[in-house]
Write a structure and sequence with these properties.
Layout lengths: L14 H8 L4 E6 L6 H14 L4 E5 H6 L9 H20 L3 E5 L5 H11 L4 E7 L2 H7 L4 H6 L21 E4 L5 H14 L7
Parallel strand pairs: 1-3, 1-4, 2-3, 4-5
Helix pairs in contact: 2-8, 4-5
The protein binds adenosine-5'-diphosphate.
Length: about 200
């Protein structure tokens, strides 16, 4: 589509203004890892803690996004890429709107994650690797999807019939087959604190 005549319009209220109003900064915290590794569980509990501290926050969750804006996308490589491109753009809008955004997506391809990191250009972006062995994830299988993937009912399933490329340099690794949910939540809160994400001005 020709975008030549589409011109960005700057409003009167900036992200900095919104951050000042809210008394906290906005940014994107990206959770990556195998299905059932614990991304959603941890992100939603972090959201609850942040909200309790008076911080505007929101979880963008893989399954929910695929029910709505990305319901027309599948799980082949091209659709996965487009899925993440849209999520990156939605995240940008949320962060611009002043929200501390938590994104829980398998995001198995290094290249796609790099794209998101670049799109944020080091701008209040953190990557969290929720690391869990495939054996443990399969044992948990909260939605019965691993069983279906093993039976070939679900194709291109990450960890079974599609690859997961581990992050090389995440801001933190949560080994969820070794640590409990509360410990992970605590570690994320500590990380956000140390990186001044929850610094009140
Ligand atoms: P994902 O978002 O990565 O697909 P979910 O959070 O939806 O994963 O599911 C993870 C499941 O594993 C949840 O049912 C959660 O209660 C369970 N679980 C068990 N032990 C842990 C742990 N140590 N850390 C995170 N989740 C755990």
């Amino acid at each position: 589509m020709n975008q030549n005549h589409v011109i960005w319009h700057n409003g009167f209220v900036s992200r900095a203004d919104r951050n000042n109003l809210n008394n906290h900064i906005s940014g994107l915290v990206w959770f990556t890892g195998l299905s059932a590794s614990g991304k959603s569980t941890i992100a939603h509990l972090v959201e609850k803690e942040l909200f309790g501290k008076g911080i505007l926050t929101y979880v963008l969750d893989g399954d929910n996004v695929r029910h709505g804006i990305n319901s027309n996308l599948g799980f082949g490589p091209e659709d996965r890429k487009e899925n993440l491109r849209r999520i990156a753009e939605i995240s940008k809008l949320f962060v611009d709107a002043g929200i501390l955004t938590l994104a829980a997506f398998i995001s198995p391809c290094k290249e796609d994650r790099e794209y998101i990191r670049k799109r944020f250009d080091g701008d209040n972006f953190l990557e969290i690797y929720v690391k869990c062995s495939i054996e443990e994830c399969e044992k948990r299988d909260p939605k019965g999807q691993y069983k279906k993937a093993r039976a070939g009912i679900i194709k291109n399933y990450t960890g079974i019939s599609a690859p997961y490329e581990e992050p090389e340099n995440p801001d933190i690794i949560l080994n969820t087959d070794e640590i409990d949910i509360e410990t992970s939540v605590h570690k994320v809160m500590e990380l956000l604190d140390s990186r001044k994400f929850i610094l009140f001005r």
